[in-house]
Amino acid sequence: MRLAILVSGRGSNLEAVLRAVEAGRLPGIAPVLVISNRPAVRALEIAGLHGVPSLVLPARAFDDLAARDGAIGRALTDAGAELALLAGYDQLLRPSYFAAFSGRTINIHASLLPRHGGKGMIGLAVHAAVLAAGDGETGVTIHDVTADLDAGPILLQRRVAVRVGESADQLAERVLKVEHQALVEVLAHLSASMTDLPRANTRPRR
Fold this sequence. Notes:
Shape: globular
Order of helices and strands: EHEHEHEHEHEEH
Strand content: 15-25%
Number of helices: 6
Distance between the termini: 31 Å
Structural class: alpha/beta
Strand order of the largest sheet: 3-2-1-4-5-6-7
Helix content: 25-40%
């Protein structure tokens, strides 16, 4: 399965995937392209270190965001990508993206969707919202990407207990470790079956 990864920052999840590929844990996955909406981010360095081609497609290079998203979709199609992974990508994908790329797109989100999803729920904002709500648990959700933000069918969820007195940074660090594991698990299943995960590993939306 030819995989493209969309990133915006430090590339921790990207690095976890590329390391798993190189370690032979994802024999059915071939990373073909990394796209960032921001220049000079660590994720681009990681792509280079692992020999994966990369592109930077910032909003300012296009007339509008629809044009930028269409360009992303065309880049994935030109690279022969079958699956796109949003790994810390902090932008909404518009209809022009889906018109240009007919492959599958999945996203990893650092909460138990549908809780703490939607506009503005990226990075530390998600973990701060979990703590502010007094939730006893949070986790990781990997889901198909659709035109509705954070609302596509769920492929996998992993739960993480919230510890009393911890900060958003501390919670984020613990959840990130689970993100890495969950991503590798999902990609292994998708590359092996080219379909959804076995039903025993899924959780319905609440």
